[in-house]
Automatic annotation (TrEMBL):
Record GO terms (molecular function): hydrolase activity, hydrolyzing O-glycosyl compounds
Name the record gives this protein: Uncharacterized protein
Superkingdom, natural source: Bacteria
PROSITE patterns named in the record: PROKAR_LIPOPROTEIN
InterPro entries with a match to the protein in the record: GH, Glycosyl_Hydrolase_39, Ig-like_fold, PKD_dom_sf
Length: 453
């Protein structure tokens, strides 16, 4: 990259105007505001990205108070049309390359003290699909929250998950934890988790999810979606050497996790987040947010919209086909017969049919959550029907035996029982784990362990 500073002489009229304004307004009480500082533009590192996917230009390392940002195109690949630069007056801007070759951009930073410019080169290459590791068995665990509340809890969960032979562990990389303020990232908690999982060779499926106190990307507003994509880009880049599997949101067709579920708004987020993941790590595998049910049928549970109708077909209609490497469902509402997997297999077939009808038959389909939601071992305020540990353990063995050939990976939900009371005020089931909240193992724990020997 090249860095230049330009003299102040061509900014003299601007300086004079500001001095006049300052004198004319100076008759009242003087309130001292921020002082300008000399601008220094930093257009970021040169990058290589895929053609036809949005690319972020990042000038956030620039310095200079009260400075104006301006991104502009300097050179294009031969024959390339000039792309539109979105947010060209902000530290982070976006464009979508449509031609192979090298694009060069200039960032200008200016204020009353001067002008600074810097250039960045973006090399555009053909898209390639990532390789997907073998292995079919995963576990969901809330290592970022109650399963990792203390170092002792984290160590115990990680070690016990490793002992049963699970190949993957799935958990949230919660946006509000990682970026509590705009452009202020904190990874210490997740670095600690990853370090412990690396020691026992557990692969991670990280979920990039949920809104923030200062941003809601579910509304479809492109500015907020790009903020989410920025979090995704920085997070994937930060953990590039350790995490290769990323899921874009959790259950976006479920109103518990996405207010007023909208396939159109989710597809907008999917496109931006997928491009961000690939910009950060071209070899990363991006997984569709696990859709409750089969991706097509409407489902209500406990009086809430558990799955909006036609969500997966609508993702394709809105152009989402090329923005996930793996599809994913959570067919809970089809897992109601403890003696059969026929309904679950039908849900898998339904989702795969939708994929095939949209030219996506070659993609893998994963079940990233499935557990005994409908098989409580104790009565609760909703039902008096209960199931024994043996019945649940036998069902676990049944689903892994029957479904292994139907879907590429299956993640059991969850490893440890939720350590809270299930009630009308807290609809978080507390019976789905392989172990109880006090880490006492259930029969299903031994079955899972023996199944993977």
């Amino acid at each position: 990259m090249r860095f230049t500073k330009i003299s102040l002489s061509n900014r003299f009229p601007l300086i004079l105007l500001l001095l006049i304004l300052n004198l004319s307004l100076g008759c009242g009480k003087v309130v001292k505001g921020p002082e300008p500082t000399i601008p220094e533009a930093n257009a970021g590192e040169d990058q290589t990205v895929f053609v036809d996917y949005q690319c972020q230009l990042d000038g956030s390392l620039s310095t200079g108070n009260l400075a104006v940002y301006l991104w502009r195109i300097k050179t294009l690949p031969s024959g390339a049309p000039s792309p539109t630069i979105t947010s060209s007056d902000a530290p982070k801007a976006y464009f979508t390359p449509t031609k192979l070759g090298t694009y060069e951009f200039e960032l200008e930073l200016s204020n009353v003290l001067g002008i600074s410019t810097d250039e960045v080169k973006i090399t555009i290459v053909p898209f390639y699909a990532p390789s997907i590791e073998a292995g079919s068995c995963g576990i969901c665990s809330h290592l970022q929250s109650h399963d990792g509340e203390t170092d002792e809890d984290l160590d115990r969960n990680a070690q016990m998950i490793s002992e049963i032979g699970a190949e993957f562990v799935r958990f949230d990389f919660d946006w509000k934890d990682i970026e509590p303020e705009d452009d202020k990232f904190s990874y210490a908690k997740y670095e600690n988790i990853i370090a412990k999982l690396d020691q026992i060779n557990l692969k991670v499926l990280g979920i990039l999810d949920y809104g923030n106190t200062w941003s809601d990307p579910t509304t479809g507003d492109i500015k907020e979606i790009n903020r989410f994509a920025d979090y995704a880009l920085n997070t994937v880049k930060h953990f590039k050497s350790d995490v290769k599997f990323w899921q874009i949101w959790n259950e976006p067709n479920n109103e518990t996790f996405w207010a007023n579920p909208s396939a159109e708004n989710y597809t907008k987020l999917l496109k931006a987040a997928y491009a961000a993941i690939k910009q950060a790590d071209p070899d990363a595998v991006a997984i569709l947010g696990g859709l409750v049910g089969n991706g097509r049928d409407e489902v209500y549970l406990y009086g809430r919209l558990f799955a909006k109708a036609n969500f997966l077909p609508d993702i394709y209609t809105k152009g989402g086909k090329d923005y996930f490497d793996v599809a994913s469902i959570h067919p809970y509402n089809f897992a109601t017969d403890i003696n059969s997997t026929a309904s679950i297999e039908a849900a898998i077939n339904d989702a795969q049919t939708i994929m095939s009808n949209n030219g996506d038959g070659g993609k893998e389909l994963w079940i990233t959550e499935l557990g005994p939601l409908y098989f409580p071992q104790e009565p609760n305020f909703l039902t008096t029907e209960v199931y024994t540990e043996t019945e649940v353990a036998d069902w676990l063995n049944l689903i892994y035996t029957d479904l292994r050939a139907k879907c590429s990976k299956l993640f059991w939900y969850e490893f440890r029982d939720y350590p809270g009371e299930f009630s009308v005020f807290n609809l978080e089931p507390n019976w789905e784990g392989l172990v109880k909240s006090d880490y006492t193992t259930k029969e299903a724990y031994a079955v899972y362990k023996n199944m993977l020997k």
